[in-house]
Amino acid sequence: MLSAFMQAFRTPDLRGKLLFTLGIMALFRLGSVLPTPGVDIGNVQVCVGQSQDAGLLGLINVFSGGALLQLSVFALGIMPYITASIIIQLLRVVIPRFEELHKEGQAGNATLTQYTRYLTIGLGVLQSSTIVATAASNTLFPTCTVSVIPNHSPLDLALMILTMTAGTGLIMWLGELITERGIGNGMSLLIFTSIVARMPQNLLSIIGTNNGVAKFLTVLAVILLATLAVVFIEQASRRIPVQYAKRMVGRRQYGGSTTYIPIKINTAGVIPVIFASSILAMPQLVAQFGNQQSRWVRWVMDNFSQTDTVYLVGYGLLILFFAFFYTAITFNPEEIADNMRKYGGFIPGIRAGEPTVRYLTHVINRVTTAGSVYLLALALLPTAAVIWLGLSHNLPFGGTTILIMVGVGLQTVKEINSQLQQRHYEGFLS
After folding, report:
1. pLDDT reading at 312 higher than 90
2. Strands of 267-417, DSSP E
3. Helix (H) or strand (E) holding 239
4. Would you tell me how many other CB atoms lie within 10 Å of the CB of residue 142?
5. Whole-structure pTM value
C-alpha cells in the first residue's frame, strides 16, 4: 500500500489529485473544530468531559469526528447525506418512478443524486433543529451543570440552525469535489477522516485507567485481529460462472465468452449495523425527554445499555434482519436472469428463466447468511471486549468503525493502483 502511494506521488497528475484530496480532508477537520456562533466553547468542553458518547448521539458523534458534541459548524457531519442516500435507495422499492430513473443510466442517476441533495438539506434542518433544541434545554448533556448556549433568543437559535445546515451542505459539496477531482469516493473518505481523527486520542485514554497499559495492548491486538479478519472477508466473494452462447450478426461472431457474477460475502456492507444501532438508540433518546421517575423511562434506561441482555438480543436480531432486507433490495435475481437471457448468457447446468432465478436466490441467501453472522460477530466485538476487560465505558472503537476504515482504505488503494496501471502500462512492442 505504501509503495502505491509513493508511486502515485511520483506521478505529477496523481500527485495533484492526492494533494487536493488531503487539502479537502484538512478543511473538513478545520470545520469540525470551528464552534457554531452562540455556543460557549468553554462550557462545551466541561460538559463533554462529564458525559459519555452513547446512544444515537454517540453514533452520530463518531461519524462527525467528535464535531457533534463540540457543537461545531460541521456538527452533523456526513450522517444527513448517508441517511438521505439510504432513504432514496429504499424508496426505489416503493416508488416505481425511482426504479425507472435508476434503470435509465447516468441521466437517471443524476436526477436521483439531485433528490438526495434536497433530502440531505431537509434532514440537515431537522437534525440541526433537534440538536440545538436539546442543547438549549440542557438535554444534550443531562449530567452537566453549565449551559452550553447562554443566550436562548430565537434569532441566535435560528442562526445556529442555519449555520449547521449550511455546514451539512458544504460537507456534501466537499465530498463531491473529492469524487470528481481527487482520489477515491469523497463521502467515504470524509467518514474515514472523522473516524481516524479520534482514534489515537481515544485509544490513549485507556492507558489512564486501572492496569491501563495491559488493557491498551489488548485492545490494540483486538483491533489488529479484527482488521485482518475484515480484510480477508471483504475481499472474498462467491463467483457464479456465466457462459454466453455464440451468435452471428452479419459476418461478425459475438459471444462465446465465459465470465462470472461476483457476490460479496458482505453484500449489505455496514448498513445493517448503522440501522440497528440507530433504532436501538431511539428509546434512550426519547426517554431523556420523559419523566425520569416514570416506570417506562427507568425500564428503558436499565435495559437499553449496550451491555444489557435486551439490547444485545435486539441488536443481533436487527442486524440479521437488515442484512437480508438490504441485500434483497440491492440484489435482484429476476433482473439479473432477464439480462443474462437477453444477451444469450446462462449458468452452466442451470436452465435460463425461472430455474436461474431460483438458483441465484438460493446462492444469495446462503452467502447472506454467512455475511450476516460475520457482521453480527464484528458488531458485538466491542461489547465483548468491554465485558472482558472490565472497562467502565464503551471502547473507543467498534466493528462499524473498523469495517469503514478498512473498506475505505482498500477501495482507495485499489483506485490508486488502477490509475497507476493506466499511466504506466507497457506497450506491445516494448
Report:
1. no
2. 345-346
3. strand 237-244
4. 12
5. 0.76
